[in-house]
Design goal:
single chain; Tetracycline Repressor, domain 2; 78% helix; 225 residues; Arc Repressor Mutant, subunit A
Amino acid sequence: MDKAMAQKAMTVEQEAAPGPKADGRRQRGTASAQRIIDATIRLIADEGLGGMTMQRIAQSIGSSNSLVVFHFGSKENLLRAVIQHLSDQFDQMWRQMVNAPGLTAEQRVLGAIDCARHFSRQHPDWVAVWVMVGGDRQTMQIDRAISAPNDLAYTAQVRALLAEIAESGGYAGADPDILSAGLNYLVQGAWYWDNAFPDAKASDAMHKTALMLLAYAFPRHFQPG
């Protein structure tokens, strides 16, 4: 390759590479889209799914409908982005509390219970939106398509951890399938209850009931809370 061709190739590569301006635009676009997602979550938590309109969302961020449409195209796409955001945030907390290196099987099971409790306590609006979306016929299918794979993976992981404890501890009568399903029902029930009565005093009933269930099945590994 002669010098002229080499210089031309270098110029093309430089033009194709994303420069500081392109990176800045991308970052601003990501921040703008996230601001819309956050506003949508607050709006749904405060007013329900009926309050979710492009106009109301745009007003809440002091912008126009065109910006919301530019980022998401439609209300359904925006709802998908909201659910994906919630799913990603819970998955991040799960990885920190359940999948952190060096934890025993017992600690990971307790981490799964605490993950659900902390998520609800720290982000009540997120849980409120998830409960509303999962309980509405029009939005339920969207929620299932996005959330179900992770939900099934979490339940399967807890089931495997319980099976490991049962085998290593010689608990022949313990049923990991029933126990993992029971813990999942406790979490889901607590989330729906908290959403139905948001002004009620925070309760540790779910956490204590889960520990009682685990202590009954694995008395040498867990203590009732």
